Amino acid sequence: MLVNGHKERGVISTYVIPVLSLATGFLLITVVLVWNARFTVASDEKTDDLGYYSYGYKIEKYYVRNTFRLTFWSSRGMEFVHEQGQMTVEAVEQRWIKNGAAIYLNLQIKYHDSIVKTQPARMIFDFHRGEIHTSSRYTLWRNFDNAHKGEDWMSDTEFDEVLSKLEK
Predict the structure, then answer these.
(1) How far is the C-alpha of 149 from the C-alpha of 162, rounded, in Å?
(2) What angle do CA 65, 66, 72 make, to 5 degrees?
(3) Count of H helices and E strands in the chain?
(4) Which one-letter DSSP state was computed for residue 54?
(5) pLDDT in tens, the chain (168 residues)
(6) Could you write out the DSSP letters of every residue in 8-45?
(7) CA–CA separation, 13 vs 123, rounded Å?
């Protein structure tokens, strides 16, 4: 039927299609936001003596995924971000060392696979030198392929020596 020279639109094209489009868009945005939502497990920061420069770390855990995100950052633009899937951080021991220039973290990392298991992962991030030292039975940040199979990873003894040196 023509009304004022135009074909009359039905209820479906007038109301249902726009409402479904809006609902689909809202649902998609909600799924993306929930999928990427995370909360802070541990964090800390330091500021230099003049109060101009700050640096620190943050460990976050995702709400709906077995993934954690570790970030070392500084106010001068440095940001080192590591996201590890199928693992979550269950506990954190932290200690600032080297007169506050480095952070020591002892993480209890839970691996979510066919066998759920918790292992320690120890790390030191030296903000002054830009160095990171790690010790863990998990591969975490290491290359694990045939070309690097023969390489020795940092042992617990070597890690303890670095930690002892930086704690003085």
Answers:
(1) 24
(2) 100
(3) 3, 10
(4) E
(5) 555 555 666 667 777 778 788 878 877 887 776 766 777 889 999 998 888 899 999 999 988 888 889 999 999 999 999 888 878 888 789 999 999 999 999 999 888 876 778 888 899 999 999 999 988 877 666 666 666 665 667 888 899 999 999 998
(6) PP-HIIIIIHHHHHHHHHHHHHHHHHHHH-EEEEEEEE
(7) 60
Considering only CA atoms, give the Rg of the chain: 25
The model's pTM: 0.74
Q: Are 68 and 84 in contact (CB under 8 A)?
A: yes
User: 54 is written with which tokens?
Assistant: 């700050």
Q: Residue 61 has which token pair?
A: 């855990």
Sequence spans of domains, the chain: 2-34, 38-167
